[in-house]
């Protein structure tokens, strides 16, 4: 077994999307080879309704799949195929845009005005770029949760992990999408398939992800539950951690514990032509998609 080293860490960048929604982008619209098969991860946690209530009015997608994971608040969605639904706290939605879809996503805060969640974009291989669009909405109580004796908690949103399989299936990138909580001071190791590209995104507390053979950062001494715990530089809220090769990820939780997404998928390794919400393989395909948007033929008949 080999522990994946940390290749790179970075903080999510503030940005604005839709009709003026303030969010933080962990990655996206950079070099797609860095995160293949994933294209983008947006953190839309927000506590000010005026910063998100304008939402994401009607817009197109083609050539990708999206996974939306809601922690707090709700998201109302509808599309050009007549689908409509409502995602609440703990729910997840998988959407295959495929050949093309027009949809809108309108967020609403909870009683405290909070709208928290994430959206991940996964690329489709060329053979599936023009597949029929489809949705899968999953209620939070359908997502299996694993509780370890040391207090570690894992929600298996997509994929299989420690004997449990998430309810979302059929995603071309065959991703593993885990929501993990590690209690204060606990050191934990998680298996990740050797052939997958993997990253973590921290959104509560802090901790240290490291290659045990090559620890980096300044050694810190913290007292947790009456015991001193040695921790190197910690990754905190809104930190993206990219991993190198290996088959395990190890983390040491800080004094407040640590909650993070652990996401992995098999690279597609195909050319990417990308503009806004449309992702194809060639510039010609991209130009065709925008021509179809202009002339009204973007949405393909469903059989």
Automatic annotation (TrEMBL):
Residues 178-298 form the Pirin C-terminal domain. SUPFAM superfamilies: RmlC-like cupins (SSF51182). It comes from the Bacteria. Pfam families: Pirin (PF02678), Pirin_C (PF05726). InterPro entries: Pirin, Pirin_C_dom, Pirin_N_dom, RmlC-like_jellyroll, RmlC_Cupin_sf. Residues 22-121 form the Pirin N-terminal domain. Belongs to the pirin family. This is Pirin family protein. It comes from Tropicimonas aquimaris.
């Amino acid at each position: 077994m080999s522990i994946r080293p940390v290749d790179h860490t970075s903080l999510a960048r503030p940005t604005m999307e839709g009709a003026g929604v303030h969010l933080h982008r962990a990655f996206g619209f950079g070099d797609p080879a860095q995160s293949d098969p994933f294209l983008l991860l947006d953190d839309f946690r927000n506590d000010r309704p005026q910063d998100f209530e304008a939402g994401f009015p009607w817009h197109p997608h083609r050539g990708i799949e999206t996974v939306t994971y809601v922690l707090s608040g709700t998201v109302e969605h509808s599309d050009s195929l007549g689908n409509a639904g409502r995602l609440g706290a703990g729910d997840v939605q998988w959407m295959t845009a495929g050949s093309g879809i027009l949809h809108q996503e309108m967020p609403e805060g909870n009683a405290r005005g909070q709208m928290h969640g994430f959206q991940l974009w996964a690329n489709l291989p060329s053979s599936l770029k023009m597949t029929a669009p489809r949705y899968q909405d999953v209620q939070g109580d359908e997502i299996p949760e694993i509780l370890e004796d040391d207090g570690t908690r894992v929600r298996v949103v997509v994929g299989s992990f420690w004997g449990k399989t998430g309810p979302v299936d059929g995603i071309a990138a065959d991703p593993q999408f885990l929501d993990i909580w590690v209690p204060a001071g606990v050191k934990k190791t998680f298996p990740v398939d050797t052939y997958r590209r993997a990253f973590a995104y921290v959104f509560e507390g802090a901790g240290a992800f490291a290659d045990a053979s090559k620890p980096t950062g300044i050694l810190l001494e913290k007292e947790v539950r009456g015991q001193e715990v040695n921790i190197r530089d910690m990754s905190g809220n809104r930190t993206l951690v990219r991993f190198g090769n290996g088959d395990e990820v190890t983390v040491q939780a800080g004094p407040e514990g640590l909650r993070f997404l652990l996401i992995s998928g098999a690279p597609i390794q195909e050319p990417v032509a990308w503009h806004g919400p449309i992702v194809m393989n060639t510039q010609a395909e991209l130009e065709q998609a925008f021509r179809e948007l202009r002339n009204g033929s973007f949405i393909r008949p469903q059989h």
